[in-house]
Write a structure and sequence with these properties.
By secondary structure, the protein is of the alpha/beta class. The chain has two domains: about 170 residues, Rossmann fold; about 45 residues, no CATH class. Helix content is about 40%, strand content about 15%. Helix 3 links the parallel strand 2 and strand 3. Helix 2 runs parallel beside helix 3 and helix 4 packs across helix 6. The longest helix is centred in the C-terminal third of the chain and has 16 residues. The N and C termini lie far apart (about 35 Å).
Length: about 220
């Protein structure tokens, strides 16, 4: 039976790679002191929201963030998250750990679009993924189709969880580009995806069976 529930998607706390402006898709960079505080602050804001389940990627930045949020929660029976590689950030292939602006320049410049924002304004975030895979000398970065095949499998994991009932809330600690990608796909153009979601910010995705829509983006 189709279920209606709200997915509370939180961006992980600030990491060292965030400070250094490096792409950190499947790479791992630890939370900074500020990043730990991001998680604490978000945990306090969500302390009285009852979650039926919690999910995150298998990266330490996501796992550390969600554990802090769950530890702060006063009303949920969920003590630990379900971790899965399906919830990882986009895989940037050869450009993992590269300066973000340089990587997107190499992806977009052959198309006359030297920045990530330029690519998105002209085409889409999905097209940016395709361009990055094309620019990757190993062609191992995820293109848009490969990315969504993986992330959709993660959403299916959540939808199939028997512990989630109609009207429930579910917590997911996610990643910057993934949140932008989800908002582009399910936001009906109502949100400004030229603004990156802040570390620790909240984005809400309402599922109703196979339908989904964004109801809040980048709430701090």
């Amino acid at each position: 039976m189709a279920k209606k529930f709200t997915l509370y998607m939180v961006r992980h706390g600030q990491t060292y790679f965030n400070i250094y402006n490096k792409l950190q898709g499947w790479s791992n960079s630890p939370l900074t002191e500020k990043g730990i505080q991001n998680a604490v602050d978000t945990g306090e804001k969500l302390a009285n929201v009852k979650f039926a389940a919690a999910y995150c990627s298998d990266t330490t930045r996501a796992m550390d963030t969600i554990q802090t949020i769950l530890d702060k929660n006063q009303v949920s029976d969920v003590n630990q998250p379900i971790t899965s590689m399906h919830f990882r950030e986009e895989f940037y292939g050869y450009y993992e750990g590269t300066d973000m602006d340089q990587a997107w320049y190499l992806a977009g410049a052959p198309h006359g679009l030297p920045t990530f924002k330029d690519i998105v304004a002209e085409y889409s975030i999905g097209k940016a993924k395709d361009f990055l895979k094309d620019a990757d000398p190993f062609h191992q970065a995820e293109n848009n189709e490969e990315y969504w095949e993986r992330v959709d499998a993660g959403f299916d994991l959540i939808k199939q969880n028997p512990d989630i009932s109609d009207g429930d809330n579910v917590l997911l600690v996610s990643h910057g580009n993934t949140l932008l990608s989800v908002v582009e796909r399910y936001g009906n153009g109502q949100f400004d995806i030229s603004e990156r979601p802040a570390n620790g910010s909240l984005t809400k995705l309402e599922f109703d069976g196979d339908d989904a829509k964004i109801t809040a983006y980048n709430e701090k």
